[in-house]
Design goal:
The chain has 485 residues and is an alpha+beta fold. Among the domains are: 162 residues, Tumour Suppressor Smad4 (Sandwich); 146 residues, no CATH class. Helix content is 31%, strand content 14%. The protein has 16 helices and 16 strands. The chain has a seven-stranded mixed β-sheet with strand order 2-1-12-11-10-7-8, with no helix packed on it. The protein has a five-stranded mixed β-sheet with strand order 4-3-5-6-9. The chain has a two-stranded antiparallel sheet with strand order 13-14. It starts with 6 loop residues before the first strand and ends in a 22-residue tail after the last helix. The structure holds heme C (7 copies). One heme C (HEC) binds next to helix 6, helix 8 and helix 9.
Length: 485
């Protein structure tokens, strides 16, 4: 058995145009892997292609490559076998030629690149003699070789295992095996099969981390996404208004109003749909594309009242200064910005209430209306039919159960009567009624919206009810509930 011994190698890279390097090793690894002492970077070179070591003053070269082989002076070295290297020998590995030259104890390897050679073409023309000598030597060494193979094989088995561990695939590698063989394999064209593989793990971890953070933020800090806190009404976990105006409390939830499936409008309406309240919108507004959020803002803090905001919205939108068009429809300051009046130029211009609105009035009021409309129809002199009907509606709404206010006369029960508005009847007093409207349809009388509408300012929704299906409209504050039922 022979012992491998560390020896000196001098490597001259003619192919790379770098200075010669000298190294001391007990086994020179040759291959494509960066871990090899002699790196031959070419696709036909195996990761660990060949190895050289010294034993008993000679250098032995091993071939490990099954695929493309290693030739010594044109002769292929069988796989896993060793050959003695003599002075002047030419080793070929892929397109590389390694010229071996003894230099004292050291082995000088001169590496050159010969792209156009075929395996087997290289001949040791300079030194045919050396080759024949070597053949003789080889015969002499036949016995020796078997001993060498054992010990050196053990040495290289270890190196190959290490090389296996050294293996790290290049980030750039073909996705599919090359379909062409032979030299054409090296005629590289930049195709898309050479792509840097997507760093999947980085992506996956990124998604996980971002996802977790979002969940934490969404669950723990909803307000982080919210423009500003929700109104108290929508933040509360218990409903306070009776009778109920919403199906359930909102309890600071975001997904009640904001959903992907349905529009905000229908979400609001779906929750605000109870026995006592339905979020109806008047026909002119529906036609003009006005929705809940045009009148009720949100995210203005806990103190913010969406209902009071609705009251204010009327005058700020219905303003000459607002030049916006709503489905092509302009807005302007109505009836001079003051209290509207139902009669203009002797004609009743007020549209009156529709069937659905009357249906919400107590039975007593509806019967009184019927009697009055009958009487109106029996008076052919007092204007046209529509006129008389509107007059009847207006009068009936303001009689029977409306409590009078300070400054206006009333009957013995404190309710409105003919003399609350008319000072004289023959001819009928048409002046005094104009002065009465502001005593009731203002901010003060609205009670709920005192802070929003001033005492001398018109409260728009008191004359133009938006949500007529509301069991507690402002007017109930001065309607006598017992009367007209
Ligand atoms: C009661 C209904 C309602 C609830 C509940 C609600 N929002 Fe909103 N949100 C609105 C309205 C109304 C707007 C204004 C939309 C518009 O102007 O078109 C809005 C707007 C937004 C906007 C856009 C702000 C902008 O400037 O455009 C974000 C973001 C938002 N809400 C997040 C949230 C979050 C987070 C929650 C849960 C804490 C939440 N919302 C709960 C009604 C609601
Ligand atoms: C044209 C303006 C306008 C539109 C559109 C509008 N509202 Fe209103 N809303 C108001 C006004 C003004 C008030 C306060 C006066 C009142 O109670 O009638 C109000 C009050 C409310 C109230 C409180 C009722 C109460 O008794 O306290 C709710 C709830 C409500 N609206 C929901 C909605 C919903 C839901 C929509 C959309 C389907 C909507 N509103 C559309 C103007 C509007
Ligand atoms: C999940 C149900 C729910 C949804 C969705 C919802 N609300 Fe409400 N809303 C409520 C509750 C509950 C109240 C308070 C009622 C109470 O306390 O009894 C309320 C109160 C209101 C009020 C009266 C607040 C005040 O100032 O007195 C208005 C106006 C209103 N909501 C409008 C809207 C609008 C507009 C939307 C859509 C943008 C909407 N709501 C969506 C449940 C909801
Ligand atoms: C965002 C703007 C906007 C808001 C807020 C708004 N309106 Fe309107 N309103 C309109 C538009 C647009 C029309 C349709 C005008 C038309 O048909 O010529 C309209 C129509 C009307 C009409 C019918 C007019 C007619 O000629 O028949 C009345 C009454 C009315 N609004 C009252 C109100 C009241 C009361 C409020 C507050 C509760 C209010 N509006 C809030 C835009 C608004
Ligand atoms: C809330 C105020 C108010 C009350 C109360 C009131 N009226 Fe009128 N009345 C009016 C107004 C407004 C007009 C229209 C005046 C004009 O043409 O400028 C009117 C007009 C009239 C007319 C003229 C015909 C018409 O229809 O235009 C008669 C008649 C009349 N009222 C009778 C009565 C009688 C009778 C009572 C008591 C049962 C009464 N009014 C109670 C406000 C009132
Ligand atoms: C004493 C207080 C009082 C006076 C004065 C008064 N109103 Fe009214 N008005 C009411 C009450 C209360 C209602 C609601 C009646 C109901 O819903 O049954 C009402 C209803 C109305 C409505 C119908 C609102 C709806 O339901 O759509 C209009 C329009 C109206 N008034 C206009 C006027 C005008 C114009 C004047 C002045 C000529 C006037 N009112 C004077 C208290 C008054
Ligand atoms: C005292 C009751 C009363 C009050 C308060 C009132 N209106 Fe009117 N409004 C009427 C009557 C009656 C008419 C019909 C006669 C007319 O067209 O002038 C009318 C007509 C309208 C019209 C349709 C005609 C037009 O000029 O465009 C609009 C819009 C309107 N009002 C909006 C408002 C707004 C916004 C407010 C609050 C700033 C308001 N009203 C306050 C009674 C009132």
């Amino acid at each position: 058995m022979m012992e491998t011994q560390a020896s000196k190698y001098i490597i001259t890279r003619e192919d790379l145009n770098v200075d010669p390097i000298a190294l001391l090793t007990d086994g020179l690894k040759i291959g494509r892997l960066p871990g090899c002492e002699l790196v031959l970077n070419h696709p036909t070179v195996s990761r660990l292609h060949a190895g050289i070591n010294a034993a008993d003053g000679r250098f032995y070269v091993f071939n490990f490559s099954h695929s493309s082989g290693t030739t010594l002076n044109g002769r292929v070295i069988p796989v896993e076998e060793a050959e003695v290297l003599a002075d002047g020998d030419a080793l070929q590995i892929g397109p590389f030629i390694l010229h071996a030259q003894r230099q004292g104890d050291a082995l000088n390897l001169r590496v050159s690149l010969q792209v156009a050679v075929k395996i087997g073409e290289v001949e040791a023309r300079d030194d045919i003699h050396a080759a024949s000598t070597r053949a003789v030597e080889a015969k002499q060494d036949a016995r020796l070789m078997s001993g060498i193979s054992d010990s050196l094989s053990v040495f290289w088995e270890k190196r190959k295992r290490e090389a296996g561990k050294m293996q790290r695939l290049s980030a750039l590698r073909p996705q599919a095996p090359s379909r062409v063989l032979g030299k054409a394999r090296f005629n590289w064209t930049p195709t898309r099969d050479l792509v840097r593989p997507w760093p999947v793990s980085v992506f996956v971890w990124g998604v996980i981390v971002v996802g977790l953070l979002s969940v934490v933020a969404a669950v723990g800090y909803t307000k982080a996404f919210s423009p500003a806190p929700l109104s108290g009404a929508h933040a509360r976990a218990t409903a306070q208004v009776a009778p109920a105006i919403a199906v359930r409390p909102n309890a600071n939830s975001c997904t009640t109003c904001h959903t992907l499936k349905s529009g905000m409008e229908s979400n609001c309406a779906a929750c605000h749909q109870t026995e006592a309240f339905a979020a109806t919108i008047t026909k002119p507004h529906v036609d003009a594309g006005i929705t809940c959020v045009n009148c009720h803002a949100e995210h203005r803090g806990v103190e913010f009242s969406p209902a009071a905001d609705g009251v204010q919205a009327c005058a700020s939108c219905h303003d000459d200064a607002n030049h916006q068009l709503y489905r092509g429809k302009p807005v302007k300051t109505p009836h001079g910005g003051t209290f509207g009046y139902p009669v203009a130029n002797g004609k009743w211009v007020w549209a009156g209430l529709d069937q659905a609105e009357w249906a919400r009035k107590p039975p007593g009021v509806r019967e009184a209306l019927g009697r009055m409309e009958d009487a109106a129809h029996r008076q052919p002199t007092a204007g046209d039919a529509a006129d008389r009907q509107r007059s009847a509606q207006f009068h009936i709404l303001h009689l029977h159960r409306v409590k009078t206010v300070e400054g206006l006369r009333g009957n013995k029960d404190g309710e409105m009567s003919c003399s609350s508005c008319h000072q004289s009847f023959a001819p009928i007093d048409r002046i005094t009624p104009r002065t009465t409207c502001a005593s009731c349809h203002n901010g003060n009388r609205a009670g709920r919206f005192q802070s929003v509408v001033a005492g001398d300012q018109p409260n728009c929704v008191s004359c133009h009810v938006q949500h007529f299906k509301d069991a507690r409209p402002w007017a109930s504050l001065f309607l006598d509930g017992a009367r007209g039922q």
